[in-house]
Amino acid sequence: MFSSHGPSLRELAIQALSSVEHGYDLLAPKFDHTPFRTPDGILDATADALRPLGPFDHGLDVCCGTGAGLGVLEPLCQGRVTGIDFSAGMLAQAREAHPDAHRVRADARALPFADAFDLAVTFGALGHFLPAERPALFSGVYRALRPGGLFAFPIGAPQPLTSGWYWALLGFDVAMRIRNAVWRPPFVMYYRTCPLGAVRDDLAAAGFTVTTVPLKALGQRGDGSPRYRLVLARKTSA
Questions:
Q1: Maximum distance among all alpha carbons in the chain?
Q2: Do the domain assignments include residue 201?
């Protein structure tokens, strides 16, 4: 499915009926051949927006998966780059793609770091956390950063009601909620649970100073607003 190198429909069904961790262990070898991987255009636009804000020393990719974000961090950071994920399968793929990066297997809701990084990023992971779990995630990133450190991630504008994508994403989220209501273990993967306003409020509650910048390279919506923004959450200096 998706390409000749991607997972089959049967493989996706098995993954969808697994836990998040085991599902990604199963999907990991073929993940980069699915639409679930963050597109290179978003990665490149993020790197371009972060470059003038450096230089950075140590970098952290939160929920690194197969390592797409590590590829963003490596040219931006002068020190060690670390990826954290709770899927051993995804970390194995990240090791192959980025052998010089440090990898840690842990739950992002309980990050095992304190004052260790100057830049943290995450790509495509927020939908794997329920809104009630975001405070723990963001507080952990805040602790992991040094004073003045930056947490950055792209976030898309909401789709208009007239867009086919609006209804496709709504349908996916409804199907996932039904799946989780009738099947255990749950598989948390939602596309419409992290709007910018709610994310901004949770970041501020964790202690961050939050701004956004448009990712102009990714285009505009019909009303002239950007299709994507880069969220920049700064840990206050000591």
A1: 52
A2: yes
